[in-house]
Write a structure and sequence with these properties.
Helix content: 40-55%
Largest sheet: 4 strands, antiparallel
Structural class: alpha+beta
Strand order of the largest sheet: 1-4-5-6
Distance between the termini: 73 Å
Number of strands: 6
Shape: elongated
């Protein structure tokens, strides 16, 4: 069989495999139904007086506070929980590429040189090197191929020895007829989407904690100012009580009462200052800094107006919640795993082949008489495994049911909140 016929057969088999691989076992994902109300029962007849537009990216801007704005911007850059979630998202995206690479053939190159013989001087040593090749599919995705090994003679001397040189290109393709690899790609893609939503949720949580701690810190400052005013009044009352005692028109009990009020106000003032310090330290950690490196200047007064939060409909609520998007993608990923489990019932079909040269002279190695090739399919199927596949499918379906329940619970919790 000549080379043209070889590649013709390979093309026919590849086209047939591609046509068969159009199907994929397992159910296609359909978003689970969840209880979604048409309106909020407490919102009947109510309308906000001055509706505001909330920017989902910079939602804290409605407070018009430059200090808060600066702190919030540092969260996405320096918060370590956000950095961890972002790294997990990048890893999930990379895993999708790894799974997609299995859709394409592995191609490798191998080269070797060998010397055999006998006698006292029949010895030699070789240096071996390796290289890696890759293939690109029609969709533009690159998969990693095999490795090639080249061996070169370093030293050796002998008479009556024989040298053999080989250079071979080989390839194998695990044809995804039943859709197992495509379901795994689907699983990885859905997991990456879920991790993206998780990243958004972690970022939103950190930003909301910064805002809450910041406003509590400002409230502590306002409380401290009130206690300072009260403490000044209590000290004035204590002075008056002492003067009245010296004048003989008051008792020691009156002085003790006034002193108790002063001591109580001073204790409250220390407690409020401690609360402010703790909140400042908490904000420092949220923006990714050691507490000693962040100092928030005290505000002179707290004149912030509470912004009006626009009332939202259930549909817009679902769109704004990253935790709902994450739960929905987790369910989709679990659904794809059902197809992966069901694909194990079908045999694995692999196409493999090689084309190379073998000769005793390196100069004439790549000549027609030295050429050799192999090509053919292989099939593998497990006949008995003690029912493991049955339980793998059941496990996948149970995991999907669990993710659907988690999705519906997330939706219910969102409406509750």
């Amino acid at each position: 069989m000549n080379h043209a016929r070889l590649f013709s057969h390979a093309s026919i088999v590849a086209l047939a495999a591609a046509s068969l691989s159009a199907c994929a076992v397992g159910p296609d994902f359909v978003r689970p139904e969840a209880p979604v109300p048409q309106s909020f029962k407490e919102d009947q007849g109510w309308k906000p007086a001055t509706p505001a537009q909330v920017n989902s990216e910079n939602w804290w801007s409605i407070y018009n506070d430059p200090v808060l704005d600066n702190l919030e911007k540092q969260v996405a850059i320096n918060n370590q929980n956000v950095a961890e979630a972002e790294a997990a998202y990048r890893a999930a995206r990379a895993e999708t590429g790894v799974q997609r690479g299995a859709l394409f053939p592995d191609i490798g190159l191998t080269g070797s040189g060998r010397e055999t013989g006998g006698g006292r001087n029949g010895s030699s040593s070789f240096v071996t090197g390796t290289s890696t090749t890759s293939t690109t599919g029609t969709s533009g995705t690159t998969g990693t191929g095999g490795t090639s090994t080249g061996t070169s003679l370093v030293s050796g001397s002998s008479g009556g020895t024989r040298r053999t040189y080989t250079a071979t290109a080989s390839g194998s393709w695990d044809i995804d007829i039943w859709g197992r690899v495509r379901r795994e790609v689907e699983t990885s893609s859905d997991t990456a989407a879920a991790d993206a939503a998780d990243l958004a949720a972690v970022r939103l949580l950190a930003q909301s904690e910064v805002a809450q701690d910041y406003f509590q810190l400002r409230a502590a400052e306002e409380q401290a100012r009130l206690l300072d005013t009260a403490l000044a009044d209590f000290n004035a009352s204590l002075t008056i009580a002492k003067n009245r005692l010296n004048a003989g028109i008051a008792t020691q009990a009156d002085v003790s009462t006034a002193q108790t009020e002063v001591d109580s106000a001073e204790a409250q003032r220390v407690g409020v200052q401690l609360t402010r310090d703790k909140l400042e330290h908490a904000i420092a950690v949220l923006v990714g800094k050691p507490p000693s490196e962040l100092s928030i200047a005290a505000a002179q007064t707290m004149t912030m107006d509470v912004p009006v939060v626009p009332a939202g409909m259930p549909s817009t609520l679902l769109e704004r919640r990253p935790d709902i998007a994450e739960a929905e993608r987790r369910a989709a990923s679990a659904n794809a795993q059902i197809g992966v489990a069901e694909a194990a019932w079908f045999p694995d079909i692999t196409l493999s082949g090689s084309y190379g040269f073998t000769g005793s002279k390196l100069a004439s190695l790549f000549s027609a008489p030295n050429a050799a090739w192999t090509f053919g399919p292989s099939i593998a199927e497990t006949i008995f495994n003690g029912g493991a596949r049955i339980y793998q499918v059941r496990e996948a379906r149970a995991n999907y049911d669990a993710q659907v329940a988690a999705y519906r619970q997330t939706v219910l919790t969102a409406f509750q909140q």
